[in-house]
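Journal club prep, notes for RB
We'll compare a predicted complex against what the paper describes. Inputs for the tryptophan case:
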Amino acid sequence: MGNENREQWGSKIGFVLAASGSAIGLGNIWRFPYLTGMNGGAAFVFVYLLIVLFIGFTVMLAELVIGRASQRGAVGAFKVLSKNPLWQLTGWAGVVCGGVILSYYGVVAGWSIKYAIASFGDLMSVAEAGGAGDYFGAFITNTTQVVIYQVIFMIMTIYVVAGGIGGGIERACKFMMPALFAILIILIVRAVTLPGAEKGIEFYLNPDFSKITGTTLLVALGQAFFSLSLGMGAMITYGSYLKRNDNIVTSSFYVVSMDTLIAFLAGFAIFPAVFAMGVQPGAGPGLTFITLPGVFARMPAGVFFSCAFFVLLFFAAFTSAISLLEAVAAYFKDELGWSRAKASWIMGAAITALGVPSAMSLGGTPELFGMGFMDAMEYLSDKILMPLGAIFIVLFAGWMMADKIEKEITSDGQYTFGLYNVWVWLARVVAPTAIAIIFVNGIWG
Ligand code: TRP
């Protein structure tokens, strides 16, 4: 298969922004802060940073090198690189996982649109009166409304993916990622200048190491994978549009750093405000949709900051959803020869349909495997498909490509990678073992 016609990223910065856009999502702005709030603050942040550095970076480089070497999406990559067809199961699991994640991701992303609009409506007055929890509950159980926002979100996602790599994905990310950064900085300046913000900064930056437990490690490891978009071939697919002479070591480093920086900054926008307003940080998943509107409602110009925050959340979710759909559509495009537009619209529609039972399940039914449908989808992707995918991806890069991987990583010696030997052993032994531990604990723990 000649690849002369394969689409490519227009520039290195375009790739870095698109891959960072994939990584930076609900995981950074919504999940990272609430997990930090529930798991002891600064101690959790410290553990998270170590895990990202040693394991996150290792898996990121493994995915990009598999994609770039094969010039194919998640399934095709294994077909090209190995004679043993069993490896393709890893790619298959990734495609299924991408669809499963996107089905419920689109639902939660739709909430951010609703909240950005509602910031101008009744949200602030209701939240000021202490009604943010009821407001959220009433919204998510109104299935018709939730599905409308989900469908709007999904149509936008499909439209960008159908537009292609350079013209669609890269262009959208080049606009949204800097905008996201700017909004985040404004929110941080607001938060840290509130009277009483110091207590939040203390909670966030001054670690109490006695709070680190086995659970902290497992939660941090799971969060690192989700946040960096690893374990389902999304980065294999993005890597496949890289040019042979791009430096993938520095690219991996930038993407991992950007993702981690944004998660870290999101905490800086949230905890000082939460503490300044005397609210508890450990609210869990409701921190963003229940606690924060209450915080904004009591700030001067709260409407503006609330809207800015939910637009930020929307941008973050949007660029991630694009990568999830791209990873699925690439299979139908590369392996079945569908056109990009056909793959995007048909798979996008199917995934949207799969999201509807998730949206409905917030009202109680339907159930699957004895849990709400959305929880079941999350369990299947986060606890089963992603860890298994990540294990096989690093093992493949570390062992199966052993004879050529150093040349691949350094673009035939064009670049140097001083820590190559450390990376290889992290990929062969340390990362698979660590992930296997999360996997076993996640299922039986
Ligand atoms: N990383 C995204 C977030 O933090 C979610 C995401 C996008 C993802 N693409 C992915 C997770 C691929 C796993 C695999 O919100």
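Talking point for the session: The radius of gyration is 21 Å.
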